[in-house]
Each structure stands twice: as structure tokens, then as C-alpha cells.
Amino acid sequence: MKNSDLIQRDLSVLWHPCTQMKDHEWLPMVPIRRGDGVWLEDFEGKRYLDAISSWWVNLFGHNNPRINAALREQLDTLEHVILAGFTHEAVVELSERLVALAPPGLARCFYADNGSSAIEVALKMSFHYWRNRGEARRTRFITLENSYHGETLGALSLGNVPLYRETYGPLLLETIPVAAPDCSQREPGETCAEYSERLFAPMEAALVKHAHEVCAVIIEPLVQCAGGMRMHDPVYLKLLREACDRHQVHLIADEIAVGFGRTGTLFACEQADITPDFLCLSKGLTGGYLPLSVTLTREEIYAAFYDDYASLKAFLHSHSYTGNALCCRAALATLDIFEQDRVVEHNRELARHLARVTEPFTEHPHVGEVRQQGMIVAMEMVKDRKKRTPYPWEERRGLRVYQHALQQGALLRPLGNVVYFMPPYVIDEEQIEFLARTAWDGIDIATRD
Ligand SMILES: *Cc1c(COP(=O)(O)O)cnc(C)c1O
Description:
By secondary structure, the protein is an alpha/beta fold. Helix content is about 40%, strand content about 15%. Strands 4-12-11-10-7-5-6 form a 7-stranded mixed β-sheet, with helices on both faces. Strands 1-2-3-16 form a 4-stranded mixed β-sheet. The chain starts with a helix and ends with a helix. The structure holds pyridoxal-5'-phosphate. Pyridoxal-5'-phosphate binds near residues 148, 254, 256 and 257.
């Protein structure tokens, strides 16, 4: 089979996510035949370095022998069983290990199948907690501007991407949006910590005004990923935890993208030494193998639902595939690799190399900022470096970088004008250097006129 055969068949029956399908009249899609480590290979043998971990999910490479072996064993034992009234070994062991690894105080695991659903669970659980406690007037959520929490209606409501809100606004819950501590906006001479602290004022004001009607504040700790890899200092999380306690509202940490070692610690919240009331995890949870998500919460929240059946206080949420055994087994194999290979420590070296190779980008005439948090590094293309004038979105400069990278054998998928690397943790230093060269040339080409 050739690439073109599969493309033809695809275009006659599929509808792809996050895609204007008309683009495929001139922009060929890439059919992948197999994966191997950081590489994806098409039907004609061309290889692409997966610099974005296939939408941030893959941690230890494609076709990983250790995860494969664990899955094969599970496959010969139990593929799936209903999780209401029944249980199985993989889901129990995974829950034990997640509770042990997560910030202290998170004691209960509730499963769903994707990140958006984990957010739905946290949203409903927080609301329902307050209702069970006799505070049904709490119906609102505080969110940060430019945040992203997924695509289902509840998750979309809590997010704050302007295009989504404009399009689906009439279907969404009304939230209380607050300015985000995006450190790229800091004043000259101001540190990211100082700026993040200063930007806490609008959050405090929103809490003072609305706490009585608010269920929870939701945040993507340290990095707003989909919103263009915008970063803040851990001090913001510390202040937020302290304020949520003071105003008695929940804190939901959406670590769907940043969890599992992305930011330099296993969980981003660790860098602020805080425990959220809800911790949402997905993406890297199964090493990029299978769809699974989990919402962890505190024992006290669990206890507010624990009562005689007739009280009707039980949590109302379920998915057919909740706690799927294959997914849980992939997650366990992923946690094994973290332990056996001392991944968090190893990532610190890789992150230092990422910093070294992207340092020269700070001198590029059309790069406004290079920012990094652990295994995420982003370079923002700008029209005018001094004034930080952005390129108009219609010019689709990021797409030119994408096209150049594909030609060179790398999968980079800029977010608008933000070119970034978020590679699998099995990438090596030479491959990182190849990515830097590819991105540099791509940015050159994309900003030429
Ligand atoms: C990807 C993502 C989600 C949604 O997860 P899906 O599995 O795509 O539904 C939610 N929050 C953040 C921060 C994400 O990056």
C-alpha cells in the first residue's frame, strides 16, 4: 500500500478532529504504518520524529516493548469488566499507586476515559459535594482567561479559549473568568515570580466577590498548554491554595497535560507544595497507549457522598468503560518505567539540553520569547521583536513551520505562532539537536516575508 491509497480511502469516510477538512485539498495528511520509539513511519518508509508526543500523550516512545508486554499479559487474562459492583486487580493496584504518588491528602480515585470527562467528574463532584452539604446555591466556577480544559460541554465551559466561547457560547455554563498570570506579559525587569504574585490580585478580588456562590477554582498548574504554552510561577499556586482555603472553595488542578513528569516534577503541584481538592489526570497516564483518565480527591469529599442509600447522596456519574483493565495495565506499566528508569531525574538532564539548544532562538529576529518548563519548551514567533507585535492568525505562519518540519522528518505542530517541543522522554540529545535545527530553519522560512 502507498500513502496515497490510504489517504484516498480516509478522505472518503473520515472527519478528522481539530481540522478544517478543506485544507486537505492541498495539505496532504500523513498515514502512519508503524511507530518505533520517538519515530513514526509512513507507508513509503519516511520517518517523522514525534516532537509533540502525539498530542502530548506519549511518554516512552511508540511501540514500547515493556508496555506491549504488560498489555499482552493483561489481554490473555481480562480485557474489561463492569466497575459497578465488580472490581479487578489492575484498577486496585493503579489506584493504590496513584494515591501513593499524588500530593498528600488525595485518597480516592474516580475513573473515566478521557481528559474532558475527568474535568466533568471534578465539576460535578465539586457541585454535588456542596449540594450534599446543604449549599446548593453554589453553582459557579472561577477560571483563568486563555485556559483549556477539554471539549465536552462542561469542560468547554470551564475553559476560556475565545474562539470556542464565541462559537458554542449559548450552550455553555457561565463562569467567572479571571486574568491569567501569563509571564510573557511581565514588565521589563520584573521576574516571573513577581509578576505571578502581582497577577494574583484579580483572583483574590473574584474570590472576595463571588466565593459564596462558587464551587471551585480550576487551573492548569504552571503551564496553559493548549492556550499557547503560557507559563506562571509556582508562587501563584501557593497563593491560590491559601486563598481557596480562606474563602472555602475547592481547587481543581487540571494536570491532564502537565502531569507525569512534563514540568520537571511528577506532578506540577509539587513545585508549589500544594494539594488540590481535585487532581485530573489523563494523557500521559497510560504512556500514550489507551484512553483513560482519573480524578483524584480527598477523603473528606468522598465522605460527603457516603450515606444510606435512601439519602440519595451518591455521586451520579458513569461511563461504560470506566476503569478498563487494559487501560489500567498500560498505566501500571508506565508507572513501572518511571520507577525503574528514574525518569524524573533523567528528564532534568534532557531539559537542560533542551535549554541549551533553544538558547540561540532568543537572538532570532522573529522570536519574541523562548520559555521553558521542564520537558516543554516554546518559541513564540513575532512580527516585531522589540514591540512584540504578533503575526495575524490568518497568515498561518505556524503551519509553514509544520510543513517544513514534515519535509525534514519531524512532527512539530505549532499552536498559532507558538512553536514548541514536548517530546517523549526517550528522546536523545542528538534528536533534540535535530529538532532545534529543524525548528530554526522552519521559523526562518515561515517569517521570511
Ligand atoms: C488535553 C487536555 C484536556 C482534555 O483531554 P482530552 O483527553 O483531550 O479530552 C483537558 N485539559 C488539559 C489541560 C488538556 O491539555
